[in-house]
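> tool_call: predict_assembly(chains=two)
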Amino acid sequence: MSTTQTTDAATTSRTHPDSAAPPARRQKTTAGDRVFGGVAHTILVIWALIVILPLVWTVFSSFKDSRSILSSPFSLPQSWNFDNFVRAWTTAGIGRYFFNTVIVVGSALVLVMLLGAMCAYVLARFQFPGRTVIYYALIAGLTFPLFLAVVPLFFVLKNMGLQGTYLGLILSYVGFALPFTVFFLYAFFRQLPEEIGEAAQIDGAGDFRTFFQVMLPMAKPGLVSIAIFNFLGLWNQFLLPIVLNTDRDKYVLAQGLANMQAQQGYQTDWSAMFASVTITIIPVLIVYVIFQRQLQGGVGPSTNK
Amino acid sequence: MVAVPTSAPTSEAPRSRGRRQRLTLERVIFFALFLGLPLLVYVLFVVSPFLQAFYYSLTDWRGVSAQQTFVGLMNYATLFEDENFRTALWHNGILLVVLPLVTISLAYALAVLVTIGGDSRGEVKGIKGASVYRVISFFPYVIPAVVIGILFAFIYAPGGGLLNGLLSLVGIDSQIAWLGSPRFAMIAVLVAVVWNMVGFYMVLFVAAIKAVPSEIIEAARLDGCGRMRLSVRIVLPMIRENVSTALVYMGIMALDLFVFINVMTPNGGTSKSTEVVSRYLYETAFQKSNFGLASAMGVVMAVFTMIMAMIVLLASRKKD
């Protein structure tokens, strides 16, 4: 961009650094900097608009009726009535799907965090034969494409009598979220100082108590950020439910929405569709706003070498 | 499944645990529960389906358990003669190159603007309002892919869609059905995916750039290094590991994209213009009940995924 200008600025500041008075680091912003700053802000603002605009449009549209969505896509809604939301929640079945999603994702989340923490703890803090093999077998699960597994998985569940049940779906969610969970918690448990475990044992705590009363509370920050990522991943899961969860009454949100859209084409009830989309985004938005810090911190904990 | 592990697994044995561990009854039960339960779930629902998929790919299985003949590599031969499959594979190939490149360049550019976009003198400073930009950019990443698909289907809709509406504001009266047109459909899907993912990698790169020692950046600046050179020649090599992890994960995504394609262009688009292997696999398995053939597709994609990951990781390591 303004490379030449900034290079100039840098060179000038180098050629006479001692001239005038350089009160340490409080120089005036140079012209090059200002131009660059302007360009940078413009780019970032445009990007921010690209992100925000579709979302604002969706929320506004969810208050309009289908006719005015089509005829004047940019107008503000004439009234802030919640008819569309009511229709989406009841008639379109979003309420039902929402409830199903909460059950499935909630149970899977609790289970995967518990099992993942147990497994990661044993792998990280105990030495035993086969440890490395198990660790790598778990990590390999991160790289295989999910769609390779869904066909046999469907029949595995069918043979166990779990196909089309909440339990089958929950256990599959747990299985596929496990590698990610173990991978990160493993790193976390290894960081905890060894003395703590020893102290607990000297005080007479067994393995179970050491884990639940000492280690787990200490790993809380790690558990929280991984739980958030798992929540998002499971809430967004689509392939597993559409393959495994074929009973309409048990549809999860993502599935119900896709089904709704496929059935309507995009002709008929635009406003209920927009309302449904808004309903789906809102819980995610809430989680995002509350846990924003942990989420963004969670992206790069391992990058701090 | 969703997020990106950014560090290499620690392979060395754990720091020696001091004394030998005694094998008490409690410890046996502890191991059985703590290791046994998670592994049981993992083996039943993850490992065994993957292994079975390899086997099914060698049979002509159609879902009725009695009829299952071993046909060797015939499914693979059928696949590569199938024009639809080749189209799908070709599309995945293009996406594999374009998607990571676009997403990661954009994410890196934004990350650089935010982290070293401040004054060119003195301390390395980010741009004003950096955290606001970061928070906004990251948000699309948390929206379910299905919702993004539906949202962009609205945006691209021929009448009443946001894109055509915006175009008409600047005087272009387009009635293009973006997703229906073989020319634009793939690009339209690509844009949606990029919109979804850029913020995540931006935040990842911001964290990585912040971990670069600031003396290095300041020294380069004193030597008259401009922002462009600084970001491409100095900072980029230093966060190479993060970039290559990001490439691998975007690559894996490019080889999948089932959700986006399935929601935005059902049946793989007009004249198969957006057909990808994952969607074709789904159709072959669950609409045509040809499980053997579908498994073969899955295996082909798994092999490609691994080759891709290995190439990227080796290439990024070689520069040492």
